[in-house]
Request: fold
Amino acid sequence: MTPDWLAVDWGTSHLRVWLMGPGGTVLDQRRSDRGMGNLARGQFEPALLALVEDALPAGGPLPVIVCGMAGSRQGWAEAPYATVPCAPPSITAAVAVETADPRLTVFIVPGIKQVAPPDVMRGEETQIAGFLADTPGFDGVLCLPGTHTKWAHISAGEVVSFRTFMTGEVFALLEQASVLRHSVTGGDWVDAAFAAAVEDAISRPATVAAELFSIRAGALLEGTGAGASRARLSGLLIGLELAGARPYWLGQDIRVVGAGGIAGAYHAALSAQGASVATVAGEGMALRGLRAAHDRLREAAQ
Reply:
């Protein structure tokens, strides 16, 4: 079937496209590793066409709604940030992109910025829009774990404030490029080691740098297994994050966006602190936000 429109999530390292049919149905989903990080500005349109050209209609232009890093300064076209407090930006704030192929009409949804303290997001705002489409009356905090974990305070359908923690990137650097790489590769995850590390970091955040080196020393002197060491590394970093993000989660209704793995680790860490927390599936949330943007576009055209 020929799609009615295309929904696009363009990250730093990936490109994901949904071919959308009548009523918001998904006809097909396509992916590539042509993320913003390895594309020059003139390469975005060819990268998209390489994935979808076989599905483009011969007639009029096909609407394409894009979220994520394609709207960054280094992306396809810069989509200026909306400023908190604000509702997640939708099609009314999107930037129309000039294309060489007349079969495409491209709109890039902006991200969100915060002036004090300085912070930005691109892509997560569309996930938030998808969450709010399903849960319009939510008042609380969304935790979106990832390479750069976002904590967003949501009230009255708006992002009131947010904070980004580079915990995932720091974990990857320590796991792959530090002396700890010799101690944390392989093995099965150990829940008790993770829980103890979270508690240590929250109660004594000033000692985390020393506790990190103790992971290596423990492996050398006590034979601590790689699984327990890796869980402790994760626990120390997530615990340090929770110590810094306490104003966001303490006394709040929290939703961790994701499934399994890292989302489960955040859920466990927050639960151990007595937080009111639930996990919601993150898969498809960006698509729901893009679908809501398309609904607005269709309404405006009528």
The chain has a mean pLDDT of 96. Residues 49 and 56 are 9 Å apart (CA to CA). The chain has nine helices and 14 strands.
